[in-house]
C-alpha cells in the first residue's frame, strides 16, 4: 500500500501484523448516506494490541474510528471528512472466551457477531435474548456501543441491561478491566453504562460479560387485529397483567406496511383478509405447565370481551411461529422496495402514542400527499415512523420537503416527551438534532465528560458531539 | 441558631425558608460508626430551590452532603470531619408527582420514601418491585444514589434497572432535566446511570421516573432444605429454567442464622426441626392459570429427585407467606443482638460461591474460634458474610483482629472476581478498599469524571474517592 509519510510513521509504531488493507467494506454504511475514508485500518488480535494501537494514535494525534459489523444506521462507524483516521476493526477479537453455564454468563470479545453469541448461548441451554434483523453481521462491540435494542427489549431490556461488565481501552490508551460476572457491584461510578451507548467516543470496548437468560419452557406467538393504537396499548397492559411480565414481544403493524408487503412480496401469506388497519404480533415465553396457546387464547377472549380485539390467529406450530415473524421482518424489506421519503426511529411515553399517531397524520396531511408506515416495538414505545411517496409519485418529488418533514416529526415527538433516536443512536446523522433538542444540562455534562476522558478528541470525533 | 460568620454569609444567599435546625438526626448513621457535623441544613421545596442552594455553596466553596432517609450503611450520608458542610435534605421534595397508570411509570421526588412509592404503585394496580428492610425510612433519592438492591433484584434488577429518567442538580448548579418516561432513548451518554450509584458525589438527584411492574397473578413462597450452597445453586438454576425467569427471590439462609434466631427470638416458629445447616427461601410470581403452589410443588419434587432438596414447606396462606418472610427479615435483627465482629456485603460470580464458602471457613478457622453467618440474596451472588464471637466470648475480644479479618475476607472475594461492596456502596467506609482493589483504569476514569463535573470538589467530598 502507498502510505503518506504521517500514516507510514504511525504504522511503524503499531504492533506487528495488525494492519489490514484499506478496502471499501470498512468505509460504507447500509444506507449509503456517508462515504468514509481512512489512512490505516488496524485489527488487533488481543487487548494489549488494541491498547498499543490507541496509545500510538494518541501520541500521533490521529483519530480512531472503532469498527464492528458496520450495520449502524446513523453513520457512527465511519468518518467522511477531516484528516484521515485509523479505523480500528474488532474483527479478529472474535472469541467467545467462555460460557459459564452455571452462572448464565458468557464472556465474549467485541468482534463476535450477535448470531454467534446467540448460538453459543443456545449450545449451553440458555438464550442471549437480544434479537435484531442484522444479527448475522452486527458485532457485540457495536451492539454495546450503540446500546442496540430489537424485538425483545420489552422483556429483557436493551443491550445495556444484558451486560454485566466490560473490558475496554480508554482514549488515553489505559485499559479498563471491568469484566465482572456479578449481578451486584456498587463500587464507584458506573463506567460500563457510560461506555455503553457512547458510540465509540469514550473508548473502544474489546470484550464484555453478558447475562444469559433461561429459555422459556413454553413459547407462543399470535397475531391479533385491533381497532387502533389505543386498543393495542390496552391489550398490551392486559397481556402484561395476565402474564406477569412474560410478554417477550409486542409489535405494532400498520395496514400500510402490510399493503407494501402484499405489493412487493405477494407470495407471503397474510393472516387476515382484508388487510386490517392495525394488527399486533404478540410473543410470550411462559413457565412450564402453562400452555402458551391456552394463554394466548385466554388473552384473545379477554381482549375480545373488552372490545379491544376483533380477530386473531395463534401459531399452531413452530413453522407458523417462523411465518409470523417472517411477516414482521419483511416489512422493512418491503419498505425499502417502496423507498422512504424519510424514516424516523422515535420513542414516546406509551400514553402519548395514540394522540401522536393521530396528530402527526393530520399535520403531515397538510404538507402534501404521502403515505405513512408506522410500526415497531409498541411495548417499548418505540416506533419506526416512515414517510413514503403517494401512489404514483417518486421519492425525488419530495426532495425539497424531506428535511422540513423530519424536523416536524421530531418536534412533535420531543414536545410529547419522546426521543428522536430510540435505538439507533446519534452517530453523525443526528448530531444537530441532539444539539437542538438535548437538555442544556445534559449537553454540558456530556461535553465535560468527553473532554475529561478524551482531551485530545481522538475517539470517533464528530459522533454524538460536533467536531 | 448561632451561626459563624461564614455560615451566616452563606445562609443569606439561600432561598427564603429553606434552613432547618441542625439536629442530631441529620448527623448520625445506623451503625454509629461516624458522627457527622454541619454548618447549615437546608431543605429545598423544589428543583429551583435545590439548584439555588447548590449554586450558593459552589460560589462559597462550601461542601454539600445530600441527605435522604439516612439509612445508608457506609457513611455516605454525613461528613465527620473537615470544614463544616451544608447538609442538603430532600425531605420536603416528597411528592409523588404523578402515576401514569397506562404507562406503568411513576414520577416521584427524591424525598418520597420507598414505602410511599410502593404504596402509590399498589394503588395504581402495579408494583414498584424494590424491597428493603429500611423501606419505611429510605428515600428514593438515596435509593438511586446508592443503587440499592434488596430481595427482588433477581427478577427486577437493582434500583438502576427501575429508573427511566432523573432530574438532578449538577455540582455547578446547572439543572439536568432528563425525567423521561421512555424505555428506549439512545441520544448521548447515559448520565442517568452515572448519577445512579455515584452516592451524591456528582450531583443531587431531585426526582426520578420509575418503572412499575405488573403484579403477578399468582405468587407463592417456599422454604426448602438443601445439602449445601452448591445444591442451592443447582436448585436455583432448575427453578429459573422451569419458571422462565419468574423466580422473584431466592435467599440462602445458614443454620447459624437460624440458631441466632432461635436464641434471640424464641417465639418465632421455624419450619424445620432440627435446624438444617442450609435452607433457601424461594418466591415466585407467575402468570394467571398456573398455580404457584403447584409450581413450587413441582420444583420440590424435581429437586428431590435430583438429590438437591431433602425437605420443604410451601406457604398455604398469605399469613404463612408473611411468616416465612418475617423469619428471613428477623435474621439481621438476631445478628444485631449477637453483635458482629465484622460484617461484609460481598458478591461473587455464582459458580465461585460454594468454594468461597468452604475456603473462607477454613481460612477463618486458622484465625481463631468464631461463628460465621453467611446468608443473603443467593440468586444475585450477593452474600452477607458476617463473623461473630464464639459462644461465650465477646465482640471486644476480637478488636485487634477485626481489621485483618475483613481484609482477608475481602481479599478472597476479590481474588475470585467478586465485589467488596455488592449493594451498600463505597461511602466513606470503603474508600480505602476501592483504592486498594479498584482497577487502575477504572479509578483513573472515576477521578477524571469527578474532576470534570465537580472541579471544586464540593459534592459529598470524601465519599467514593478520598478527599
From TrEMBL, chains A, B:
Family assignment from sequence similarity: Belongs to the FAD-binding oxidoreductase/transferase type 4 family.
Transmembrane segments: none
InterPro entries attached to this UniProt entry: FAD-bd_oxidored_4_C, FAD-bd_PCMH, FAD-bd_PCMH-like_sf, FAD-bd_PCMH_sub1, FAD-bd_PCMH_sub2, FAD-linked_Oxase-like_C, FAD-oxidored/transferase_4, Oxid_FAD_bind_N
Protein name, per record: FAD-binding oxidoreductase
Lineage: Bacteria, Pseudomonadati, Pseudomonadota, Alphaproteobacteria, Rhodobacterales
Span of domain FAD-binding PCMH-type: 34-215
Keywords for the protein's UniProt record, in alphabetical order: FAD, Flavoprotein
Gene3D superfamilies, per database record: 3.30.465.10, 3.30.70.2190, 3.30.70.2740, Uridine Diphospho-n-acetylenolpyruvylglucosamine Reductase, domain 2 (3.30.43.10), Vanillyl-alcohol Oxidase, Chain A, domain 4 (1.10.45.10)
Highest rank taxon of the organism: Bacteria
